[in-house]
Design goal:
Serine Threonine Protein Phosphatase 5, Tetratricopeptide repeat; three-stranded mixed beta sheet; mainly alpha
């Protein structure tokens, strides 16, 4: 019997209803279909069996209180399945279909057999697998012919059922073949869509991926994961989120493990599809995985109750953090994306030390040092509390990493690494020596008490001792009590020597020890120590720089200059070859500091005229070193437009003029700022801030001279700077918030301003000694324009006016310098000298004694003038001691202060 037009319409609508699993309409469709097409009895009863199976499965899930969330605990070895149905619940529908099976077209019989196989697979009958094999034995799967519509769905379900049966029989390779055939069919029929197709597709791709992992075939599993993800893009947003979360977890872990294995083997790719494992493609793929994993997991993860741990969230964040290490930290948008991801995770966990640890390191990497310090304090407080309340019967040493994650327990190794990083943060970035020392001591206590058998104990000890040494040295440099200073310096030396004993092959420890010895003016020993650093790492610029300064402290200027020339050849920042992108920005800063010292040595040997010849090259190098870093520009490599996520908007960082800002109340007169009269030069943007970069021919660009007294009003208001480039939208960004500059960018801007001031003041000093007072004044004005809060600007201004005989204006400038830096040693020495020349011996002694006992203990001028004060007051023994000490300090004084020219803590 042929189908009538009416029957064709009914069949079409019937098949659409079956594709949507709209069971309530099945009986009516079946009745009408058989009425208009007598041979449709097989298809009608097939649909009624689907109805019975669907209702029985729903009832079984309700009876067993079964939820999809159980799939969150799936592993490649154990995959959760819905509860089986009782055979009697569907027996009547099965028998009814079997009775009419031969009464319809052969095509209907084939598809009916697939549904019968489904009914057998869904039941808990003991012979269920045999019945599945019986029903499918005469059906070609996949078929040779092309099928469409709901029939395509039935073929996919038949392949999936066959694979599940083979899987239960232990025939895993054969089961994988069935699941892979589903993937192939989906690729050949990309336009097929239906709820039931999505369901069976998900079953096949999910199980196939997990079985490949069970077999240990990571690369095949990755291909299946990719097929799953491709199909998931078409599924409803709430469809099987628990299984999707599990799938993305194993997808990320497998892709990461495969990539690491290939990196360790020196291979650039992880599969035969090389393009998929290039860095950019890998970053894009992992970003998608992380985003969908996060969204699906959070959709099925409630906030934890009391004493509950959302360990799955911890696993996810840890994997994301590890993947970011694998891919590299990326640009500022990527770093911010990671921080925001961790903050979101904190909303699904409760007082998790692990989350705080990840947040601390992410904030440090992002450069948000103040927030990192808060996260560090919260972390250390939390682990301390956990140590007090932990279960005494728990032997933590026996716990695996996975068990620690599930219990959210931090290992002593994790705690120690945070303490070491905290010591570095406090000492290097925040200048808080006391907090840095406390972290270093805490790390050492942990190592000695818990980690003696750790394979990482050597490096941990070395890092902790270095942190302790730096903190002690920083304390000594800031202490005002002369009785405490020697003990602090001694402890710093002892800590560095312990670090060297632990890891004698670390060049940076020798450098730190040499710098500490140099600060203490133990020059011969410092020279021997820094040579040890260079013997280990011959291209370390700060070590070469330190050696040059040490030689200059012995007044061996020629040799120090030759050391600078050798060091310049060792650096990638050599002016003849570098493009300012091949080496890091911090390396560039080290190289620029070396070149400044080289110019000072040139001045010392050949005079100020010779030093001025190098200024053009120094300003040019400055523009390279403090140009925008490539990693700070552009959009996040995780920015993927196609991902269905919360709405986000680009975030613009408001332009903030850090340098080149006119200062109210300036002693210096101003030249015009309003356009054509200014020839200062171009600007370079650094992390959202602007820095004024002088042109190479800086001397001729300076405007008219300034007066010798008071300040004149600046002409015109400051012109707005060009807005900073908007940061690109990051994939995992939260909704737009006001972005403030990171501590890292603020510090970089401050360093850039300080260096630029140093360059201008070097020019001013050279001009002054050459008698070119007008040019010296103009150079000081440029330094003041960059940073009027730098006390050295005002000290140079005072020195210039003093050289011109204008003591009144000089006194005003020195007072301004001391208002900005009350312990400015050179300035206090000049003030003491002024009191001495004026006959105010008590005032002179007070100022100079305060200087030599505190921050100016190594200022030769202060000791010299203090000796002169004692001599004038007939305290000859004290005078002799001071003068001898001044002579000793002068004989060991470098051309630039050690700790000002060199980094105290290496990166």
């Amino acid at each position: 019997m042929t189908l009538t037009a009416k029957a064709q319409v009914i069949e079409r609508d019937f098949q659409l209803a079956r594709g949507r699993a709209n069971y309530s309409t099945f009986p009516e469709f079946a009745r009408r279909y058989v009425k208009h097409y007598k041979d449709g009895v097989v298809l009608a009863n097939t649909a009624l069996l689907e109805l019975a199976i669907g209702e029985a499965e729903s009832q079984a899930r309700r009876t067993h209180l079964w939820l999809q969330s159980v799939s969150l605990d799936d592993t490649p070895e154990v995959i959760a399945v819905s509860p089986r149905v009782r055979p009697e619940a569907i027996q009547e529908a099965v028998e009814r279909l079997e009775r009419v099976l031969t009464k319809g077209p052969e095509e209907h019989q084939e598809y009916a057999a697939i549904v019968l196989a489904r009914s057998a697979m869904a039941s808990d009958a003991p012979d269920r697998l045999q019945r599945v094999a019986h029903y499918l034995q005469n059906i070609q799967l996949p078929p040779a012919r092309i099928v469409t519509g709901y029939n395509f769905t039935l073929i996919v379900s038949g392949l999936t059922i066959k694979g599940m049966a083979l899987e239960e029989e232990g025939r895993i390779p054969d089961a994988i073949v069935c699941y892979d055939n589903v993937a192939v069919m989906l690729q050949s029929n990309p336009n097929e869509r239906s709820d039931e197709l999505f369901s069976w597709t998900e079953h096949a791709l999910y199980r196939g991926s997990m079985l490949k992992l069970r077999q240990g075939d990571q690369l095949a599993a990755i291909r299946s994961f990719r097929a799953y993800h491709h199909q998931a893009m078409q599924w409803p947003g709430s469809f099987r989120l628990a299984r999707r979360a599990t799938m993305y977890r194993y997808y990320a872990q497998t892709l990461s493990a495969s990539s690491r294995a290939n990196l360790s083997n020196g291979s650039a790719t992880a599969t035969d599809d090389q393009s998929q494992f290039q860095p950019a493609a890998l970053s894009h793929e992992m970003a998608q995985i992380h985003a969908y994993w996060e969204d699906s997991l959070y959709a099925v993860t409630p906030f934890p109750g009391a004493n509950e741990k959302n360990w799955r969230v911890l696993v996810m964040v840890e994997q994301i953090v590890e993947d970011r290490k694998l891919l590299g930290s990326g640009n500022n948008a990527d770093k911010r994306a990671l921080v925001e991801t961790i903050y979101r995770a904190s909303q699904k966990t409760f007082q998790s030390p692990r989350i705080l640890r990840f947040l601390f390191f992410a904030l440090v990497d992002m450069g948000q040092y103040d927030e990192a310090a808060l996260a560090l304090k919260a972390y250390l407080d939390m682990v301390e509390i956990n140590m007090k309340v932990k279960n005494d019967g728990l032997v933590e040493d026996d716990l695996t990493h996975e068990e620690r994650v599930r219990m959210d327990l931090e290992s002593e190794y994790d705690i120690t690494t945070v303490q070491i990083a905290g010591s570095r943060l406090y000492s290097k970035e925040l200048g808080k020596a006391d907090e840095g020392l406390a972290c270093a001591k805490g790390a050492l206590d942990n190592i000695h008490q818990y980690l003696q058998q750790s394979p990482h104990v050597t490096q941990l000890l070395s890092d902790a001792y270095k942190g302790e040494g730096v903190a002690y040295g920083l304390q000594a440099s800031k202490v005002h009590d002369p009785e405490k200073r020697p003990d602090l310096y001694s402890k710093a030396i002892d800590a560095f020597e312990k670090a060297i004993k632990v890891t004698p092959g670390n060049y940076d420890t020798y450098y730190l020890l040499a710098l500490q010895l140099a600060e203490m003016r133990d020059i011969p020993k410092a020279i021997l120590t820094v040579k040890q650093s260079l013997s280990i790492h011959a291209s370390h610029i700060p070590s070469w720089h330190l050696l040059a300064l040490l030689l200059s402290s012995q007044k061996d200027y020629e040799r120090a200059l030759s050391i600078c020339a050798i060091a310049s050849k060792e650096s990638e920042w050599d002016l003849a070859t570098t493009d300012a992108l091949s080496a890091s920005q911090l390396d560039g800063e080290d190289y620029l500091a070396l070149r400044i010292t080289q110019a000072v040595l040139q001045d010392q040997i050949h005079g100020p005229e010779s030093a001025l010849e190098l200024q053009e090259a120094l300003f040019s190098l400055y523009t390279k070193v403090f140009a925008p870093e490539p990693s700070s520009l552009g959009e996040s490599m995780y920015d993927i437009q196609s991902i269905r996520r919360r709405d986000q908007s680009d975030v613009e960082v408001s332009n903030a003029t850090i340098a080149g800002r006119p200062r109210a109340g300036s002693i210096l007169s101003s030249r015009s700022r309003n356009g054509t009269g200014s020839d200062l030069g171009h600007q370079s943007t650094i992390n959202g801030n602007t820095l004024d970069i002088p042109k190479a021919n800086y001397a001729s660009s300076i405007a008219s001279s300034i007066g010798s007294t008071g300040s004149k009003n600046r002409r015109g208001a400051p012109q707005p700077m060009t807005p900073a480039t908007p940061l690109g939208r990051s994939l995992l960004s939260l909704p737009p918030t006001v972005r403030r500059p990171t501590g890292q960018s603020v510090m970089r801007t401050a360093r850039a301003n300080k260096v630029l001031v140093t360059l201008w003041l070097m020019s001013a000093s050279a001009f002054r000694r050459l008698g070119r007072m007008d040019d010296a004044m103009k150079a000081i004005e440029e330094a003041e324009r960059v940073d009027a809060s730098n006390p050295d600007v005002w000290y140079q201004l005072g020195s210039l006016h003093a050289a011109q005989g204008d003591q009144e204006t000089a006194s005003i400038a020195f007072s301004k310098a001391l208002a900005l830096a009350p312990y400015h040693a050179a300035c206090l020495a000049r003030v003491g000298r002024s009191y001495l020349e004026a006959g105010s011996l008590e005032m002179a002694e007070g100022a100079l004694d305060t200087t030599t006992r505190s921050m100016g203990w190594d200022c030769a001028e202060a000791w010299f003038y203090l000796g002169k004060v004692f001599e004038a007051s007939n305290q000859l023994s004290k005078s002799k001691e001071c003068l001898w000490y001044a002579l000793d300090l002068e004989s060991t004084r470098p051309v630039r202060p050690f700790t000002e020219a060199l980094p105290r803590f290496l990166s």
